[in-house]
Amino acid sequence: MYCAAFVGAPPVVVGTGSIEVLANLGDHLGPVGAGTVVIADAAVVASGFVGSCVEALGAREDTVVHVVPPHEPTVASVDETADVVRRHRPGAVVAVGGGTTLDTAKQAAAVAAAPHSVAHFALGVRPLPANGPPVVAVPTTAGTGAEVTRTCVVTSADGHKLWTWGEELLPTLVVLDPRATVTMPPTVTAATGLDAFVHAIEAVTGRRAGSDVAAPALDALTLVVDHLPAAVADGADLEARQGMQRAAYLAGLAIDGGGTGIAHSIGHALGSLADVPHGLAVAVGLAAALPWNVEGAPEAFAPVAKVLGVPVDELARVYADLLAAASFTDACRRVGPLDIDPAALAAEMVEGANVPMLRNNCRLVADDERLALADATLRLWNELVG
Question: In sequence order, which residues have a C-beta less than 8 Å from that of residue 56 and are 6 or more positions away?
Answer without folding.
Answer: 19, 20, 21, 22, 23
